[in-house]
Amino acid sequence: MKIAVLSGKGGTGKTLVSVNLAAVAKAASYLDCDVEEPNGHLFFKPTDVEETEVNVKIALVDQELCNGCRKCVEFCKFNALAYVKDRLIIFEDVCHSCGGCMLVCPQQALTEKNKPIGKIQSGRSDRVQVNSGILNTGEATGIPLINKLLEDNKENAADLTLIDCPPGSACIVMESIKDADYCILVAEPTLFGVHNFNMVYELVNLFDKPFGAVLNKCQADDNPAEAFCKKNNIKILARIPFDRELGTLNSNGKIASREWEKYRALFTDLLETVVEEVKA
Amino acid sequence: MKIAIPVNEKNMQTDICESFGRAPYYLIYDTEKDEATFIDNSAATSTGGAGIKAAQVIVDSGAKILLTPRCGEKAANVLMAADIKLFKSIPATAQANIDAYLTNKLDPLDEIHAGFHGHGGN
Ligand code: SF4
Ligand code: SF4
């Protein structure tokens, strides 16, 4: 079973929820797909860490073969190419590895070369297999890292996989949830939080994924996120209270459900609720 | 010699466009012929790499001078490879900028902006 955890922006508690759900399970894989800012490993502190470099294929030109026809420049919809003074210029960090320019070049002047864009770190933390994608700064897209994380997980998947998605609703998030059986949307109890929540809500609807909401930082006062869920008939899976001690555990890189019975119970319940939702 | 300027409208009294890559038009002014042409910027609406494509348009126009309020790093690479010199435009009409350039009143553009990374389909 694959459960994706999403939120409209960072810092809403997406990592808190996915890390703790993985930690209370009998066995789980935790995939950190938030490749621009992976922080799940700061909590799990995995051991026996192995690293794999992830490469993409980008365009490489042989200036000797190039006759300056510019078919490639016109073709590249990412505008990664320019032709100036009898030379083709390739902007490697703009190239999206689509391979199209190589097909349209009449001179076979374009080939591909490997360029590392990041790495995957995998290790163990108690009963959790922790795999994190780490994107090199300045790279155009982390999608190849996400695909590798999901692909590798197919081979040695535990029964339960938690996918910690990148924040927002861009195509990198769609990649992250494409194989998910269920999506958990994490929301903060503010109007701004509702705005962000709505973005991911629309995304999961678009993908027709079953989903439910976890309300984070709940206090006694009115909760616009809760009102939004009720209005749209979104199932509320759990409420995490606003709790200074939880904040402290978090900032110290501690996993609440491993430290505190109260949170172990909360996340165990949440996991059971989700599992039932998926089976239903 | 040709001077290029990113502009908002197709006339000499137009404002300079604040964005080099996303300007709707480029004014190409030929100092020898005292002739102005306006070219559409096909990159204005592209999702990524607009600056690179726009720079290609300027290179292909044969301009040797670009007057612009700002310029991204990648576009600057393309322009510099073509030996195009960049000058900082002043907040005035296109005509006033050309006059200012021709009387040596414009400073070279030395601030180049690193690109934003709004990638991933945002
Ligand atoms: S591989 Fe695709 S994105 Fe890269 S330069 Fe060629 S056409 Fe552009
Ligand atoms: S398509 Fe091939 S030959 Fe034509 S400009 Fe590009 S690299 Fe050169």
What is the level-2 CATH architecture name of the largest domain in chain A?
Answer: 3-Layer(aba) Sandwich
Q: How would a textbook summarize the main sheet of chain A? A: 9 strands, mixed
Tally the beta strands of chain A.
11
Instruction: Give the tally of structural domains of chain A.
Output: 2
Provide the succession of SSEs of chain A.
EHEHEHEEHEEHEHEHEHEHHH
List unreliable stretches of 5+ residues of chain A. Answer: none
Overall spatial form of chain A: elongated
| Helix count from the secondary structure assignment of chain A | 11
Helix content of chain B: 10-25%
Structural class estimated from helices and strands of chain A: alpha/beta
Per CATH, the architecture of chain B is: 2-Layer Sandwich
Strand order of the largest sheet of chain B: 3-2-1-4-5
Characterization of the model:
- The complex is a heterodimer of chains A (280) and B (122).
- By secondary structure, chain A is α/β, with parallel strands linked by helices.
- Helices cover 36% and strands 29% of the residues of chain A.
- In chain A, strand 4 and strand 5 (87-90) form a beta hairpin.
- In chain A, helix 5 packs parallel to helix 6.
- The longest helix of chain A has 19 residues, at 261-279.
- Chain A starts with a strand and ends with a helix.
- The mean pLDDT of chain A is 93.
- With 122 residues, chain B is an alpha/beta fold.
- Chain B has a single domain (2-102), classed as Nucleotidyltransferase, domain 5.
- Chain B is 25% helix and 21% strand.
- Chain B contains 3 helices and 5 strands; from the N terminus they run βββαβαβα.
- Chain B has helices at 50-61, 73-81, 94-102; strands at residues 2-7, 25-30, 35-40, 65-68, 85-88.
- In chain B, strand 2 and strand 3 form a beta hairpin.
- In chain B, helix 1 runs parallel beside helix 2.
- Mean pLDDT of chain B is 89; it is low at 116-122.
- Chain A binds chain B through residues 73, 76-85, 87, 89, 91, 94, 138, 140-143, 166, 168, 170-172, and chain B through 43, 46, 48-50, 52-53, 55-56, 59, 74, 77-78, 81-83, 117, 119-122.
- The site of one iron/sulfur cluster has 15 residues of chain A, from helix 3.
- Residues 61, 66-72, 83, 88, 104-105, 107, 109-110 of chain A line the site of one iron/sulfur cluster.
